[in-house]
Amino acid sequence: MKKIICLLTVIAAMAAVSCTPLDRTNPTDPAADNYAGMHYMGTIGDFTQLNDFGFENGTMWAVGIINTPSGTSDAIATYFSDGSLNYFFTSTAISAPTGIASDGTYLYVLCTDPYTSAYNPTDIKKFSPSYVSDTAMTQPPNYAGEYRYKCAVNAANNYLYLSGADTVMIFDTAANSTVAVFGSGGTADGQFSAISDIEVCPDGNVLVADPGLNRISIFSPTGTYMSKIDIPFTFSGVGIEDNSIYIPSSDGIHKIRYDTGESLLFADYGDGNGKVMQAGPCEAHGGRVYAGTASAIKVFGP
Fold it and tell me: Under DSSP, is residue 145 helix (H, G, I), strand (E, B) or coil?
């Protein structure tokens, strides 16, 4: 295992959420006839490239190429609950960060740099609660030549789920070892074509988004296939809260109950207020939905 120990440069800054007038024809506008129950609240962040984001104890964390006062850099940024920037940090250990997840105590960041190691290209960075130093955990084996791009945590069993193109690895964060790998390339139930995101449900089951097969597959915490939800539109990231899945797409944000299949659409296609024009990363937290674009995170709430 290659262990990287470095001092993180911590730079503090503050930036308020920007909120501009709503488009009165948009279904996120409470005054509109077609209001769908969620309205646009503003944007968070300033990115050259947003790769992933998530929450830990009410605080948002994001990874990607972030615009800072001193320029752009691969970095991790954290935001207060009101959307203002808390601080960001960069480090030589943070190279091409693609995924981020938290178990409520530690923050896990996937750094996927093909120039770092030809054999084990994905590092798992485990940050301490103070987030001023990091430890490179045991690297997962380069299973079938795959990189690992996205991650999700089940704090109840210390499992970190790492998604590749067509497999998911279960990594035990307490034992620093691989528990299992499930999935394979193909079109049958339990197989994958192009995994784009992964989430852990409140009941511990695992959702795996696969736009290559236009579906979301549901697995048990140990990787046993259970069921699937067909998704008849272009998508990438998914967010989940309670029993609802939130999916940004090219025609708005879809809310789908994963237990009943009931569907609702809010937000429109476009680049204006309350609109989305791409399938991107998504999180649902505290009754709000956060839809990522390349350069910012749009916030929707009831």
Answer: helix
In whole angstroms, give the CA distance from residue 120 to residue 107. 21
Average pLDDT over residues 222-240: 91
Rounded distance, CA 35 to CA 56, Å?
30
Q: What is the pLDDT of residues 105-118, one digit of tens each?
A: 888 888 876 555 44
In the chain, where are the structural domains located?
37-242
* Domain boundaries 37-242, CATH class: mainly beta
Q: Is the pLDDT of residue 144 over 60?
A: no
| % of the chain residues with pLDDT over 70 | 73
* Residue-level pLDDT at 136: 60
> What helix, strand, coil percent values describe the chain, rounded to 5?
0, 50, 50
Q: What's the rounded Cα separation, in Å, for the pair 57 and 209?
A: 25
Per-residue b or e along 169-188, where b marks 16 or more CB atoms closer than 10 Å to that residue's CB: bbbebeeeebbebbbeeeee
